[in-house]
Each structure stands twice: as C-alpha cells, then as structure tokens.
Write the structure tokens for this entry.
Amino acid sequence: MDIFTRLTPAILKTTKDYIAALEAIEIMTVGDLLRYLPRDYEDLSQMMTLLKAPLGEKVTLRGTIDKLKLVRTRSKKQLIQGVFIDEDGETAQVVWFNQPHIMRMLKDGDDVVFTGKIVENGYKLQIQSPTFESAKREIMLHGGRIVPVYPQHNIINTKWLREKMALVKPVIDQLEDPLPKEVVEENGLLSYRDTVRALHFPDDLALTEKAKERLAFEELYGLQREALLKKQEWQGHHQKRLEIPMDTELIKALFASLSFTPTNSQKIAIYEILRDMEKDRPMSRLLEGDVGSGKTLVAVSVMANVIRRGGQCALMVPTEVLAKQHSEGITRLLVNFHRYLTDQKKADHAFPHLPSIVLLTGSTPSSEALAIKQGLATGTIDLVIGTHALIEESVTFKDLKLVIVDEQHRFGVMQRAKLKEKGSPHFLAMTATPIPRTLALTAFGDHDLSVLLEKPGNRKKIHTKVVPPKDRTTVERFIDHEIEQGRQVFVICPLITESAHDEMAEVKNVETERARLQHEFPKRSITMLHGKMTPAEKEEIMRRFKARESDILVSTSVIEVGIDIPNATIIVIEGSERFGLAQLHQFRGRVGRSDIQSHCFLFTTSPEQARSQRLKAMEQHDSGFMLAEIDLQLRGPGELYGLRQSGIGLTRLSGLLNPELVVKARRAAEKVLGMVGTSSGTGLNV
C-alpha cells in the first residue's frame, strides 16, 4: 500500500457504500484520505472514574462490561442495556438506542474504554450511547488521548474516520512535502509528514498548534506565490514609453491650488505611485482608503502627472451615477489647476493644453460615444471616465499609460483584465472598503499596497447609535427636528429574507418603508431608490436629492459608494443586524461629508440584537480598518464586504489573523521566485 493506492473495501475493511461516500467528496486514494484533516480536537487523555467524573461532560472511563441484554420497548424500539464496572468497582447502567449490532461487538466480561456523558437517571448513574474500544488495544483511538474530530459527510462519521486513519498511518512517511525544503527550514516549520502525523495522531496540543500553523503558512504561501506569478507576468512587459518622470513641482503646484492641505498619507501614496510609474514596466498597485480619506485627490495627482507628459488615462467605476460624479469633480479640479498654473505663469510645469476629459457610459448617445472613441484612438482625449463601456473592443487608445479602477472588487477578474490589456498600461486599483493588510496582501497579492490612514479637513466624528425598537419614536422626533434645520436623511432598507427569491422584493421593501415614513413625517418630501430602476432614473433621483428637492431618500443597499451629498447628515439603517461591519461602515460614510455634525442610527429588529457586540463596535470605532479587523475575526474573510469575488477559498482561515505568518509566507514566495526586495510598498513594514 502506498499513497497512490486506490481505496477499496478490502484496504479499509469496510463496505462499498463507505467507499462511494468517500468518492463523493473526492477521496480516491490513500494519500487523499491522509490529507482529509481534522477540524477540531477533544482532550480526553485523562482516564476518569465514575465517582470523580463530572456529570453531563464527555469523559473517558476504563472498566468492564457485564449483563448485556437486548430489550424491546412497547413502541417496538430496541435497547441494548448493560452494567459498566469501573476500576474502583463502582457501577453505572449503560444503554444504547437502536443499535442491535452492539450485541455482536461486545460480550460480558470484556475490558473496555468508554467515552461518553454520565447522567443521573433516578437514583442511578447512566451512560448513554458511549463510543467504546477494547482496553487491550495498544493505541486508543476514541478516548484516553487527544481525540481528533473530523468533518462528517453522509454516512462517514468521525469515529469511522479515526479507525480508518489508523489503518493507513504507516503510509504517512511516503507523503511528499508541497513546500520547498529551504522554505520549511528557513521558516522553522514542521515537515509535512510530521504535520500530518501530529494532526491525525496528536500527543501534544502544542505540537498540533504548530502543525496547524504550518498548514496555514502552506496555504498562504500558495496564494502568495500565485499572486506574485501574476504580478511577474503583468510586469514582464517592459516598455520605454511607460517611463513617466515624477514632476514634483507639478504636484506641489497642484497642492497649492487646493483649498485644503493634503494629508501625509495622501502625499506618501502619491509618491509611491509616481515612483512606480518611473519604471519601464507596468505598475500594479492597490490604493486602500477609508471612507472620506481622499483617494480622488491621489488619483487626480497621478493623472495630472501622466497628462503633463502627453499620456492618456482611463478611470473605470462600477456605476453611471458614480462615473458622472467623478467626471464633474475631477474635471473641476483639473480645470481649476490649469487656470492656477496659467495665472502663476508656471509654463515649465503646465499642461500642454487644457486637459480634455470625457464621460463614457452605457447610456452615452451613440453619436457622442463614436466621437469619444475616435478621440481616444487619435489621442485628442486625455482622460476618459466611465463604466463597463470602457472595456468594449471598439474602445482603443493612442497612448494609454494609466488605468485606474475604482471599487475594484465590484468588477470581475475578466473585466479588470480587459481594461489592463489595452496597451499594458500602469494599473491602479482603488477601494473604499477597508481591508485588513493581511487580507489585502492575500486577496490582492498581485498588487503593491498603498494605504490612506488619515482624513483631510476637520470633519467631525459621526455620532453612531444602536437603536432598539422601543427607542424608535425618540430618534424619529430628533430626525424631524434635524430636517427642520435644513438637513437631509438617508434610510437604508435590507432585503426581506422571506422574499429573497422575489425579484421585486427590494422594491416592495423600499415602497413599504417609504409609505411608513410618509405617515410618520407627513410634512416631509420622501423619495426612494432601488436596484430595479434604470441608471437614468437613479441619476435623476440622486440629482434631485442633492439639489434638496427631497428631505428623505429611502434606498436598498444599492446606495452608491462615494456618493457625495454634504447636506445629508443623518443615515438610518433598518435591520442593521443583517449587515457586516464593513458594509455598515460604508453606509455610514454617506454622511459626515461636511463640517456639520452627522449621525448614524442602527435600528435593530429585536431588543436582543441591539446588545450585539458586533453592532456596539460601530458605536466605539470610526476607523474602517479597525472595524474590518473585528469583522474578520467575527465573520471570516469570505463575509467581508466585496471580497467573495477576490478568489480567496481558504479552508484554514486562522493564518489571516496572524500578520507575521502572512508576511513570512509573502517573503518566502518572493525569495523562491527571485523577487526578493519587492515587498517594499506592500505595507509589510507598516
């Protein structure tokens, strides 16, 4: 028997049904079975006696079985009853329900080791349905040791798996280590064989923890290696045209033209990006910034440096509403900057001409879209801002040097790749979803990492309160008072779980809440927004809300990331317990965009949910990165807002909570791939 031997009933001393059940979960060979690892452990190493064993807890007992008999109840059920006598001579009744095969496996006088819970049945002690094995067995499997607990499937249970692992244990020494030998030695890791042995047959929980860490490292190493290979492939296209000198005087002039002072984080991020773009290979960088941290200024600074040197830029965003807002804001910044340069007579660092900026979306009229495409192809357009329309084959560029994708997690891998392929330009991804560094380095490991940790200006902390049902009236009176003072309100509704399969569920949900609020606030103008509306309808609603034509906007979670309405100072989130912390923080970022005190009210469905530790974290922390760390620990990376599309499929997630392990895995992968030193700029040393 070796690791490649196909599993059969004879090898595992079992039936065809069990072999079929293993095949259903893709366990075909001995090696596959050994790689099916425990999910948890129980410490049953201490042998107990009946008088010392605690009631209701799983314990291990050694003794003798006697007076076994089969009993049929009036309801025609079968019970196996017996008497267990421990090593001190104390006795307890033993009972198994509907397991007549026990009579073939045990006989009076057998020395046994039982594992189970002791309960009181009247005046007698009783052990119900314990697992058992012969006390003469050289190695205990189900008790008297640290016992592995396996993931169960169909008829395959953890007891059966322990017995089968014992049969194939000798083959562990044939397993090949998936990690390079130098990686194992340099990082002080257990060998793969010792890891598998420590997990299936643990003698020491400390060693088992080392084995778990080794597996976490191995998985992280694999992810990092794959990401770095992608990065290597992307940056393998050396092009002299991509060398864009950093014009520091231009950036200083841009800062001087602003009405506020950029933060140190913004300055560092701009420097890191522009330094990357001086090289002759495509940059690949992720810019992380909390809500309101000023990613747009970073993007504008970088684009200005490219346009100054005659290159073209493209900015892709997920929605038309956001695309139009970016188009208006960025155009205003660059036009004002061009005027400032002209007024200050800084010809040496001015644009060759007034930057030509266009908006291209799915709803752009065909004649206008055709003119835009011609301008991009001939080079008369410097910057195009748009949605998925930018990745159409008909969109070509004369000299595309920089692609920026905002909220990258909301685009598929293929969509991002199509835009990157239009001339292999420098690539900058931006996200307002705060992702813990360890997770960002894993989910987006093919990028270098820049992080904005500060917020520009003097914005006040958003007052956040978790609100139980009984306090709703008080909060709504406060909201009405704020509207009276000229403020506006967002109300976010979750989907109704029971109606999740009804494509109109979100519409009904929003309409219901709008009707309720119209009753509660009869003097106020209330409008609504949901995902079933056309882009034009959504844009018109947001335009009117921004123009203060309505007081309250009721929306589902489609409310756009980055939408900037400074006069909206209150956001109400209904059913807040349904959302993760990262998404709640995103919603909260829709307010607090001026120097006026803003408020976030998290309404819960029940009083118990209002005491949730997770929701209380929203009251205590206004840092998206801190909340993301808490969300990662409470919910796991798959639940963090927007990361399901990242490709992470970790089966052992503990490694992501260990920053040192992520860093070690990253550096080990870099060394093996000959990329030593590329970690600068990834946030590893921050």
